[in-house]
Design brief:
Number of strands: 10
Shape: globular
Order of helices and strands: HEHEHEHEHEHEHEEEHHEHH
Distance between the termini: 43 Å
Length: 269
């Protein structure tokens, strides 16, 4: 389940319409820290590069949304030499982006300076027609979150004077005033539509967590009540340990004395 799916499920639970228990695998550490960040980060840029063959080094790439997926896209883009701008509505996430060294701007301002745009908000209208009309000629627009509602494509098609497929999966829209924006994958998830989605080497973490979550739901001695529940930390730890073993990496374990120290309060206080 995606971030949007979990949000919908929580909204259903709040309204009393969710009739069964659900474990929010999307909120598990093995999903957010790895699948969302590294999987989305890589597959999104892979899709953009395959669809456009653009050189990202030196480009201004705008990431709209700085959740775990946005963090991954921003980090991978910076690694390829792009100058990354972040747009956020959450002040804590915006502050985090600043502390990471990214420029943070409102979308209306970023629209005028960006050359490549990636939406990863999980919400609608992250980029409106007004934003698209303000963009530089040839700006590339891609979506890596939610559905094709993150970019107002319906509004774009209403005002566009022409639409031309310039490459497979890339449509250039001519707008009044002389600007042109190139939309990838019809606003759908660019990593899936223009590339091969997340690598199997990161999806195995999510699938393992999903499998263990289903096992937990099916075998729990006391069935969970209807609603959205967190994935137990023990499941995340088990998956992470198996992943480390699979790639031949070892880590340390706490000693008995260290465990006792962490449980106590008399020493070191």
């Amino acid at each position: 389940m995606t971030s949007t799916g979990v949000l919908r499920a929580r909204n259903m639970a709040r309204e009393g319409t969710l009739a069964y228990p659900l474990l929010a695998v999307n909120d598990a550490a093995t999903k957010q820290l790895f699948d969302n960040r590294y999987g989305t980060g890589q597959s999104t840029l892979d899709g953009i590069l395959r669809a456009t063959n653009v050189l990202l080094a030196g480009k201004v790439l705008v990431v709209v949304g700085y959740g775990w997926c946005g963090r991954g896209v921003a980090a991978r883009a910076r690694g390829l030499g792009a100058r990354v701008v972040v747009c956020e509505v959450d002040p804590l996430k915006a502050l985090e982006a600043v502390m990471e060294g990214y420029q943070v701007l409102p979308v209306a301002e970023a629209a005028r300076v960006g050359e490549v745009f990636v939406t990863v908000t999980g919400n609608r209208d992250a980029l409106t027609v007004e934003h698209l009309q303000a963009m530089r000629p040839g700006a590339i627009v891609a979506n890596a979150g939610h559905f094709d509602l993150e970019v107002d494509l319906a509004g774009l098609r209403r005002v566009a004077t022409a639409a031309t497929e310039v490459r497979p999966g890339a449509v250039a829209y001519d707008l009044p005033g002389g600007t042109r924006v190139v939309v990838l994958a019809e606003g759908r998830l660019v990593g899936q539509a223009c590339a091969e989605a997340h690598p199997a080497e990161v999806m195995d973490l999510t699938f393992a967590t999903q499998a263990l979550a289903v096992e937990l739901l099916a075998t729990a001695a006391d069935p969970l009540p209807a609603g959205v529940h967190p994935v137990p930390a023990a499941v995340d730890e088990r998956v992470a340990r198996h992943k480390l073993a699979a790639i031949g990496v070892r880590c340390d374990d706490l000693t008995a004395a260290q465990k006792g120290y962490l449980r106590g309060w008399r020493l070191g206080t």
